[in-house]
Amino acid sequence: MKQRIFSGIQPSGNLHLGNYLGAIKNWVKLQEEYDSIFCVVDLHAITVPQDPEILRQKTIEVAKIYLAAGIDPEKSAIFIQSHISEHTELAWILNTIAKIPELEKMTQFKDKSQKNGRESASVGLFVYPVLMAADILLYNTETVPVGEDQLQHIELARDLAARFNKKFGETFIVPKHFVKEEGMRIMGLDDPRKKMSKSAASEYNYIALTDPEETIRKKIKKAVTDSGSEIIYCDDKPALKNLINIHSLLTDQTPAEIEKMYAGKGYGDFKNGLADAIVNFLKPLQERIGAISDAEVLDILEKGAAKVRPIAIQKIFDVKQKLGFII
Ligand code: AMP
Ligand code: TRP
Fold it and tell me: What is the pLDDT of residues 219-250, one digit of tens each?
């Protein structure tokens, strides 16, 4: 029996190189060894305001990106979170055992709720990590491959699983995270102290996977660098380190090999080389995205949901029985 992995991305904003290098790139490899489930988490996306038409487009786009990046629907199940209503059902149940202080300490909640003022933050945003725990626990997930920013949420999923098991008897697998050192934290191009993010204030923070060549070149040209002129990979030069990381991950070279390639050259040459590397990687990806029709992706999503639904139904049945619900 293969071990199961589960992961997801929100269809909010533009997917960027951080999402690819921190998450999707690893999923493509992991699907060879694991029983894999990848979700487009639309219920999570609406914890902050979304335009319905754009949400619809982005949900389809995220699924196309999964496919274009190499997620194989024959090997992995790809589906839309809201197609399986058991996610919200389990989230409600887990809400009753999650504690207010453990949600209050979540850094993502603190960051996101501060953005527009705590008064306007939705209750959905507050309980977002509980829904994420439900996503994971519903499918007997053993491993959750994500970027570093999600570790605190996975810790909560582990705590809730253990708490439920202790109270009601063995029901959930306590999941572990999987993060790959390289790529787990791609930083913003405009500020290497903050992660590259879909919800960044400036579009110069990220390279979207769908950015056209001109935009990519412009953004790399504008990317902040550190003082000095040599291309060296070190912690004292966080902006350059981040750019070298991106280069290294996209061209499958070590940072040392990148340093060597640009020995004696300056930032101009390095940035041109980096922009070339990104364009060479994204162009074929974008062509593959463009070649997938909406009808094709909707069919794959429906089949994905059909594949995972029995697991979710079974788990909710078990949970309801344990709680003392009349079934
Ligand atoms: P999100 O964009 O919040 O839906 O994140 C989707 C996935 O991408 C999660 O596994 C994140 O941990 C990962 N991710 C998002 N931003 C970054 C980043 N800047 N560096 C590495 N991984 C990231
Ligand atoms: N919260 C995750 C993010 O923003 C997305 C997500 C939702 C997720 N449910 C999940 C990731 C379950 C892994 C497993 O990145």
Answer: 999 999 999 999 999 999 999 999 999 999 99
Q: Could you list the active site residues? A: 112, 195, 198
**Protein residue whose Cα sits closest to atom 8 of ligand 1:** 19
> If you measure from the C-alpha of residue 169 to the centroid of ligand 1, how many angstroms do you get, rounded to a whole number?
34
User: CATH classification of 203-289 is 3.90.78.10, yes or no?
Assistant: no
Domain 4-179+293-323: which topology? Rossmann fold (3.40.50)
Report yes or no: 270 and 231 within 8 Å, Cβ to Cβ: yes
Distance 275 CA to ligand 2 centre (A): 29
**Is the pTM for the entire model greater than 0.90?**
yes
Q: In angstroms, rounded to a whole number, what is the distance separating the alpha carbons of residues 284 and 92?
A: 42
Both tokens of residue 323? 């709680």
CA dihedral (106, 205, 13, 92) in degrees, to 10, reads 0
Q: Is the pLDDT of residue 85 over 90?
A: yes
Annotate 20-57 with DSSP letters as a single string: IIIIIHHHHHHTTTSEEEEEE-HHHHTTS---HHHHHH
What tens digit of pLDDT does each residue of 1-32 get? 899 999 999 999 899 999 999 999 999 999 99
- Angle of helix 86-95 relative to helix 123-137, nearest 10 degrees, comes to 110
Domain boundaries, the chain: 4-179+293-323, 203-289
Question: Can you tell me which residue has the tokens 């056209």?
Answer: 212
HSE-up of residue 306 (Cα within 13 Å, Cβ side): 7
